[in-house]
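hey m, so remember when u said the tokens were messed up on ur end? i reran from scratch. heres the input so u can diff it against urs
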Amino acid sequence: MRILIHDYSGHPFQVQLSRALARRNHRVLHLYCSSFQTPRGIVHELDTDCDNFSCRAIELSQPFEKYKFIKRFFQEIEYGNLLVKEVEKFKPDILISANNPLDPQRILLKYCTKNNIKFIFWLQDIYGYAIKELLTRKLSILGKAIGWYYMRSELSMLRRSDRIVIISEDFNTILQKANILGKKIELIHNWAPLEDLHMRDKDNNWSRKHELHDKLCIFYTGTLGLKHNPELLADIALALRDQTHIRIVVVSEGLGADFLKKKQEEYKLNNLILLDFQPFELMPEVMATADILIAILDRDAGVFSVPSKVLTYHCAGRPLLLSVPQENLAARLVEAMETGIVVPPHENGRFLQAVKRLIGDQGLREKYGKNARGYAESTFDIEKITDKFEKVLKEMGES
């Protein structure tokens, strides 16, 4: 079977699935957007890859303007057209698309429908809701109207898709309200590529390079975008700057990192370490350097936006500290598995208390870290996960 997996973000676990399917004698092309600023997995071909696997980046003609909405609209149309050209060349039997903005997703689905290519909408988030909330704040009534358009457009695409893979049971409610029937929906929870994220000692080459091997390190890694609260990280650095053995390390790029750079300079925060995204191959050493791992979501994210970094963090065997809505899947996971502490968004005082609690209780950190790695090892079996996807693919091939 010829399978094209498109993951706009280039996340680690989607490309792991592509490689796993290729090892099962499927011909797999993996596509991602190289113009989108985000940490990525191993989205280049390796000497160890089988001949059935190939990976390609799609690059826009100009740097991506995430926060200039009109230019972004036209760039996403360009991206959709570039995607279609790749599909035309590869001629897949089935296409799986994840994390794609709604306009290029619409272009892609239209092409697949017209050319009899089976389409799986891998639903990672309900973008229409997020767009409506954001544009209503930015553009008032006009923004709300645009948001409603994207909500309807997204639901229409879901109805027209051959199958939908959802990552959480929470999506079922909204899909049922939209009269999208359960027989085309498959629940497959997200995961992290455990085989690429081995446990490492804190004292390693990366930690020594950055002089962090002998410090207590509080880490944030990944995107710092509009749905995050970077000021929370600055507040932690301010509160702890007199404790010379502690470092707050932020591995990110973009607006949030720029904000923290200004705070670092304004308050002379020598304990705040800002680093660009690191190659995925270094992530085992990066995360092993951490003593506490932080994830942040704004309250508007609700249940639908699930940070993939939370799953990656579990592989590190370190305690998690989340500032996310209580109803979010990531919050429920951390609390149920006892892998860390969850504090609601924008409660910076409570969050700082939780930071200090973890700093002062090594036994609690070790308990949460052990539980985190245990959850990852019991859940992130790529062969079992690939079985689930292959079952869906075979059913579609037979229909």
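this time it looks ok to me. The mean pLDDT is 94. if urs says something different then somethings off w ur setup not the seq
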